Structures are given as C-alpha cells and as structure tokens.
Amino acid sequence: MGLTGADAPAGSGSGSPGGYAGTVAAPVPAHRDQWEQRVLADPQLLGDIAFAIGGPFHLMYPARVVDNIRGFQQVFTESGITGVVYYGKKANKAACVARACATAGAGIDVSSTGELTAALGQGIRGADLLVTGPEKSDDLHWLAARHDCLIAVDSIGELKRLAALDIPVRVLLRALPAASASRFGMSAEELDHAVSETADYPSISLQGFSFHLSGYDPVPRAEMAGQLLDRCRAARTSGHPATTVSIGGGFGVDYVPAADWAAFREQATRRWFHSGKAFESYYPYSFPEPGPAMLAAILRREDLAGRLRRTETTLAVEPGRALLDRAGSTVFRVQGGKTRHEHGQPYRILTVDGTSLSLSEQWFDSEYLPDPVLWPDAPGTPTATVVGAATCLESDMLSWRRIPLPRAAEAGDLLVYPNTAGYQMDSNESPFHELPLPPKVVLSEAPGGRYRWALDQSRH
User: Fold this and answer.
1) What is the pLDDT of residues 162-211, one digit of tens each?
2) Radius of gyration of the CA atoms of the chain, in A
3) Where is the Orn/DAP/Arg decarboxylase 2 N-terminal domain (predicted)?
4) What is the pTM (predicted TM-score) of this model?
5) 312-316, 338-342, 407-411, range with the lowest pLDDT
C-alpha cells in the first residue's frame, strides 16, 4: 500500500485515547504467545542473556514450531486426506527448527547440500526431504539420490541429468502456472514431454507434480492443484505412481490485530517516518485466515479435499514463515540516542548494537512494522522513536517509523522485535563492519516454571 501525502493528517490511532496526530505513528502491536509474555515479564532473563552474549541475539522457542506443524497436520486429519508438511528451510536455518520438524513428524524442503546435510544432522530422514530449486548442482542431485530424497525437477534438462546418475530417484515435476512470468517450472508442453521422458529412464520414479504461486489467495492454489490432480490421473494410466501434488508455500501469518493494521493503512503519512521515508508496499501484517486456516480454505475450494480422497492422492505443503509464526524474537541493546525535530515535533533517534540486515524486510525495500518492545518496562513519557543501526550507512535503519515507545529509551535498554523467526532473522545477515552475526538462543522449559537457555547448534 502507498502512503498518503506529506501534509495529510494522521487521524487517531487504534487503542489511543489521545490519537496519533502529526509525526507520531499509530502503534502496530504484535500478537504475543504466553512464552513471550513470560520472557518480557521476567526481571532478569533477557538482561542475563544480553550480558552473556554481549551483542544482539535471536530468541527461538521451538515448542511453538511443533505446535504450528501440528496445526497443519490437524487440517489434513479433519479433511480426511493424506498430507505431508515440508518446512521451507530457507525461512530460518536454526538447528532447533529442524529438530522440531523431526519431533513433529514433518519433512524439510531444502535447496542446497548445506541445507540437506544440516537437516540430516537434526534427525530428518532422507525420505522425508524434498529437494527444490532450479537446475540443482550435480553434487546435490547425487547426495539427494543417495538418501532417497524426493526431488522437484525444474526442467527436462535436469531430468536427464538425474537419469544419468543411474541411481533410483523419486521426482515431482514442477509446473509453471499459466500466464506466469516465473523463471521456475515447466510449461504444459514441457510437462507432457517430461512425463514421456520418464518412461525411458528406469531409475526415475514419477511421484507427482508441484507448483508455487505468489500471493495469498486460496482460489488459484485450489484450481492449480485440481489441474495437477488431472495430470496425476493421466500419468497413472501410463504406469507412473503419480500419487502426490505439492502446492508449495505462501501461507499467510497474522502478525498484528486487524483493527491496528487497518488504522495504520488508513492513516499512514510520510510524517510518521524519519526523513519522510516512503515504501511502496508492506507484507499484509494482519491476515484473516493464516497458516492452517488458509490450508483449510484451499481444501474447501473446487471440492479439492473430496478429489484428493477419491483419487487417494497425497497433498504436500511447503510452508516456511507460517511454521515459524510466534516462534522467535530479535533483541538489540540500545547504545545511545539523540533528539531531532521535524515539522515542529521532537522525536528520538536510537542507535542499537546491530543492523537492519537482521530485519530482512529491508531486503525488499520495505519496513518490518510490528512494534518492538522496550525492556525493562518502566514508567515514563510516551516518546516517538526511530531506530538506527550501528553502521556508517545513512540508510541502515531498523525502524524508519516513529514508533510510540512508552518511555524514552536509554543506553543499556533492550529493544525486542517480535515474531522475527520467519525470514527476518538471517535471510540476508552478513558480518558487515566485521560485526559478528547475532547468535540464536534457544529457550526451553525448566523445572520450577522458568526457562533455561542454550546456544543453537547451527554451524552459522
């Protein structure tokens, strides 16, 4: 969505008796799980971790990942169909997430030898791995075939390279949706050719078809799945197993309450942003049918669930962000701040001990909007605040928006960005300025109703 003009009034923000007129942005508060509430209420835990780490860090709560997986699995059960969940590993590389997938009986979608070996190392069996990506390397093909992984084939050339390995391999053929400009997948004619080709390769077992769609509309996903069900039926008549259709990922996440998101969209103005910054679009931070609910909506369309049952076809999904919903937060320490005035109104510019590379919406020239929480909680005067990084780049801002923090932040305080586990944590982190990458800290239940923490086992 676009912003209104620089001089447009902001109106009153949701939940604010006095409104958020002028240069102070309306709040965009995130939904919080019980584990997050307990962490924020603990008078020592965050401070102790920050002291031990000595820099920014990511909090992970893998028990929530298990719950999210089971939510998708419950939809399969209630719909009476056979389904499988593959976690899109690119969304977060933490070892604890892969271990949570193994615990919950989910597979993992990988696209490199590094992701494949990391998944194996956390207990995911090769048969539970789906290998995706365009024109995969020969090394990845060989390793995937050796471990009996399911491989999504992106082109006829890739299919021929797999056949040349002369190792038994299970494949899905990735379809290019009609009218799509994507560089991934095969056209209808190419799919027909690929199905015919597999008959000439005794080492290739055609298990079915896959696709990916952008956006979050259930209807085109159900329609495309129906088309690939027809292809599975046709392939079976030619002797292929063809028992699986994968509809990919893109399951929405509900970050903030609908009323607060609507207030932001309706009232946002350039005056809410440092230097009048504007963004063309944002992730839809309020989502009416997130994750499993979106899967249920897809299955209701086109009698998709009924068709899957009647044809005894397995439905595969590849969620990334949706399996990480409310499973992690990112914590920065305030290093200092200064006051600036714009349009006659003061606001604070904070500098924290990390960079915007840890809030990856900046990768898409956008802003991560859920409000950070200032810790510790203490009385004070509400203060409009933007957040900058500890680098020499003018554009390196974690939050351009003038967030209404409950008090003026001071050096040593912590800013906790909520729900960052899905893509935000490490999609494009790098040791810029030779700053170390923020480590991932894994929380688990301990006796006495408290949390204990340990560093994640990831190699990164």
Assistant:
1) 999 999 999 999 999 988 889 999 999 999 999 999 999 999 999 999 99
2) 24
3) 68-269
4) 0.93
5) 338-342
- Other beta carbons less than 10 A from residue 166's beta carbon: 11
pLDDT per residue as tens digits for the range 273-282:
999 999 999 9
Cα dihedral sign, 173-175-181-187:
positive
Q: Give residue for tokens 């240069």.
A: 23
Tell me how far apart the alpha carbons of residues 19 and 330 are, in angstroms, rounded to a whole number: 29
| pLDDT band at residue 10 using 50, 70 and 90 as cut-offs | very low
DSSP states of 293-334: HHHHHHHHGGGHHHHHHHHT-EEEE--SGGGGTTSEEEEEEE
DSSP per-residue letters across 381-427 = --EEEEEE-SSS-TT-EEEEEEEEESS---TT-EEEE-S-TTTTTTS
Specify the DSSP element, H or E, that contains 108: strand 107-110
| Surface-to-core class of residue 11, CB atoms within 10 Å of its CB (0-12 exposed, 13-18 middle, 19+ buried) | middle
Q: Please tell me the predicted confidence (pLDDT) of residue 21.
A: 53
Backbone angles phi, psi at 290, to 5 degrees: -80, 155
CA distance 292 to 86: 14
How far, in Å, CA of 104 to CA of 107, rounded? 9
Pairing assessment for the beta strands 328-342 and 57-60 based on DSSP bridges: antiparallel
Q: Is the dihedral of CA 53, 58, 59, 61 positive or negative?
A: negative
* Residue 376 pLDDT class (50, 70, 90 cuts): very high
Amino acid at 2: G
User: Tens digit of pLDDT for each residue in 60-88?
Assistant: 999 999 999 999 999 999 999 999 999 99
Nearest to 147 by CA among 166, 170, 164: 170
Bond preceding residue 376 cis, omega within 30 of 0: yes
Strand partners, 175: 186
3-state helix, strand, coil in the chain (%, to 5): 35, 25, 40
Q: Give the pairing of strands 150-153 and 314-317.
A: unpaired
The SS3 assignment for 26 reads: coil
Q: Name residues whose C-beta falls within 8 Å of residue 221's C-beta, 6 or more positions apart in sequence.
A: 213, 247, 250, 298, 301
Segment among 3-17, 81-95, 238-252 with least mean pLDDT: 3-17
